[in-house]
Write a structure and sequence with these properties.
Strand content of chain B: under 5%
Helix content of chain B: over 70%
CATH topology of chain A: Rossmann fold
Order of helices and strands of chain A: EEEHEEHEHHHHEHEHEEHH
CATH architecture of chain A: 3-Layer(aba) Sandwich
CATH topology of the domain at 100-298 in chain B: MetI-like fold
CATH architecture of the domain at 100-298 in chain B: Orthogonal Bundle
CATH class of the domain at 100-298 in chain B: Mainly Alpha
Number of domains of chain A: 1
Largest sheet of chain B: none
Shape of chain A: globular
Oligomer: heterodimer
Shape of chain B: globular
Order of helices and strands of chain B: HHHHHHHHHHHHH
Structural class of chain B: mainly alpha
């Protein structure tokens, strides 16, 4: 372990809610730590039910939300200390987000190719029109699209699966070291889900991009993760090698999470394994 | 997907239909009023002495001819459409023989000036402030502006108008009470006259703006606060795009689309607003003219005013609709 790509060091984020009289504080993320190695690209998955703090964690890694306690360092630099346009751009060159809802990821008033060109110009530092178009095309080809398909199109003219792939292509243009993908497949048709998930794995293997994959879906988590972190109410309840954790979960919550997933050959007997437990992860029962 | 020319054609067809139906309704309503303008004129003429029944019958006959009221309702209807298509509304019945078009033409600039400017002003100002308030939610000044806008919004504008009149016309008399310009002024394109018109328009515009601002402000603020949570805004912020640019071309640009529809709809309400505001401030506009025409049973004038307002409002909405594809690519046809 020579250098660390990302160090998440005892990070907490406290929110207070309620009125002036009854302020209540709760920790969206509670003392979570993990690290990614710079030498080895991996898919690090954060699993948890909705409200478990996954997205807040992602937002802190991206520097959108400042941690209340602890620190997040990317290549040794504290993420929450990034100030100013120049520094933000430099950071974005290496850490790119992919959002949950592809329909919200692009300004509906702007053509999507403009996003790719702007990213190429601002983040990859390209100047010539031909080079910019080329970079966009290369990125689009790596997600199974091409510039010809996307050129001049507005977001509403593309499907959700296409848009999500364009969003990933946009993230790839600057050749980032880390991709933070917050539920990138939950809004996508089940038939396209596998394609996107395979794409993420492909990016890790071919381009050496490390990916923080945030999901509530244990099936895809099991399928592509190298390591895994299970979150519940802001706390990391279990972490380790993905297969090991999912095959033999130690923490009761992890066991419950695994038990809640419908096995493919579930018998449809009454009082079977489907339980109406309030902490069944969102959407878990729909992934057979 | 429809092509743009088809879009224009269907929209034009709708425009013609709306105008046709609107004018027909105006015709039916004015012609079913119990006030008879001929009898009113005869009553006025015979007020001061006895006139022989033959003379009255003769007067009735010639008045009917002059007013274009001879024949049955169907004859009148077709005569009415023939004249309208020629752009002639006939003579006013109460201010005979001044043509209706002259009366309307005299009053229209006042109403258009007052209401168009106040509507556009409140729209621009309300959206701008609302957008800023939705984006810079921490700002104390904008939060205070929000409370003010909310407080003023539910007050009827004529109440605001009277309060303004009392405050600035009576308690602290710095602004004129009524009229469109100073009494001693001649209508000329001089700085003095323009200044007087501007001075007289301050209170009416203020009464409409204070109330109208709140609606646009609150609407825009809630639209914007929905948009700022969208991922593309988050992405732009992450990428270090300048906040002013994010506000203008990411946030406001998207929030403005429904507000433009709102503007088209509120342009339709211009002539409603004119009536009471002009009454309160004694403004020489179409609203005042319409009220006096209704009292006098002058239905050619009422019809003239309604026709002009129907055409004007539909035209304004049509123009905004035709511009719509320019502001929203999702409506734009290929």
């Amino acid at each position: 372990m020579s250098t660390a790509l990302l160090e998440v060091d005892g990070v907490s984020r406290i929110y207070s809610r309620g009125s002036l009289l009854s302020r209540r504080q709760f920790a969206a993320v509670d003392r979570v730590s993990f690290g990614l190695d710079a030498d080895r690209a991996e898919i690090f998955t954060v699993v948890g039910e909705s409200g478990s703090g996954k997205t807040t964690l992602a937002r802190m890694i991206l520097g959108m939300v400042a941690p209340t306690a602890g620190a997040i360092r990317f290549k040794g630099r504290d993420v929450s200390h990034i100030r100013g346009r120049r520094a933000r751009l430099d950071f974005m060159k290496e850490v790119q987000p992919v959002f949950q809802n592809p329909f919200e990821a692009f300004n509906p008033m702007k053509r999507v190719d403009r996003y790719l060109f702007a990213t190429a110009r601002r983040m990859a530092g390209l100047g010539e029109t031909a080079a910019i178009a080329d970079a966009a095309d290369v990125a689009l080809k790596s997600v199974g699209l091409s510039l010809a398909e996307v050129r001049g199109r507005f977001p509403h003219e593309l499907s959700g699966g296409q848009l999500q792939r364009v969003a990933i292509a946009r993230a790839l243009i600057s050749r980032p070291a880390l991709l933070v993908a917050d539920e990138p497949v939950s809004m996508i048709d089940a038939s396209l889900r596998a394609a996107i998930v395979n794409l993420l794995r492909d990016l890790r293997d071919r381009l050496g991009v490390s990916i923080i994959y945030i999901t509530h879906d244990l099936a895809t988590a099991y399928y592509i993760s190298d390591r895994l972190l299970i979150m519940r109410r802001g706390e990391a309840v279990e972490t380790g090698e993905a297969r090991a954790v999912l095959d033999r979960p130690q923490h009761p919550y992890s066991q419950l999470l695994k038990a809640s997933v419908l096995p493919p050959d579930v018998p449809s007997e009454p009082g079977g394994r489907l339980r109406a437990d309030p902490i069944i992860p969102q959407g878990a029962s729909s992934h057979a | 997907m429809k092509t743009y020319p088809t879009y224009i054609l269907t929209r034009l067809g709708q425009f013609v239909l709306v105008v046709f139906i609107g004018i027909n309704i105006a015709f039916i309503v004015t012609h079913s009023t119990p006030i008879d303008p001929v009898e009113q004129s005869i009553a006025a003429a015979t007020q001061y002495g006895s006139t022989s029944p033959e003379a009255i019958a003769l007067m009735r006959q010639s008045l009917k001819e002059l007013y274009g009221l001879q024949g049955g309702l169907a004859d009148q209807y077709f005569a009415f459409w023939r004249r309208i298509l020629l752009g002639d509304f006939g003579p006013s019945l109460s201010a005979f023989p001044t043509p209706v078009s002259v009366l309307v033409g005299r009053a229209l600039p006042w109403t258009a000036g007052l209401l168009l400017s106040s509507t556009l002003l409140t729209w621009v100002l309300g959206n701008l402030l609302g957008g800023l308030a939705g984006y810079y939610r921490q700002s104390r000044a904008l939060r205070f502006a929000g409370i003010l806008a909310m407080a003023f919004h539910p007050i009827p504008y004529y109440v605001v108008a009277f309060v303004l009149l009392i405050v600035f016309g009576y308690l602290w008399p710095i602004l004129p009470l009524s009229g469109g310009y100073g009494m001693n002024m001649t209508r000329a394109l001089s700085w003095g006259f323009i200044g007087s018109v501007a001075l007289h328009s301050i209170l009416p515009v203020l009464s409409l703006a204070l109330v109208g601002l709140g609606g646009w402000f609150m609407g825009m603020r809630s639209l914007v606060s929905n948009i700022v949570t969208e991922d593309y805004v988050a992405y732009a912020e992450l990428g270090g795009v300048k906040r002013s640019r994010i506000l203008a071309s990411y946030v406001m640009r998207n929030a403005l689309v429904p507000q433009v529809t709102g503007l088209a709809m509120s342009l339709g309400a211009i002539f409603n607003g004119a009536i009471i505001t002009e009454q309160v401030f004694g403004y020489p506009g179409v609203g005042t003219l319409l009220v006096s025409a209704v009292y006098a049973g002058d239905y050619s004038l009422v019809l003239g005013i309604t026709t002009v307002s129907i055409v004007a409002v539909s035209l304004a909405v049509l123009l905004i609709d035709l511009c719509y594809p320019l502001i929203d690519p999702r409506v734009r046809a290929r």
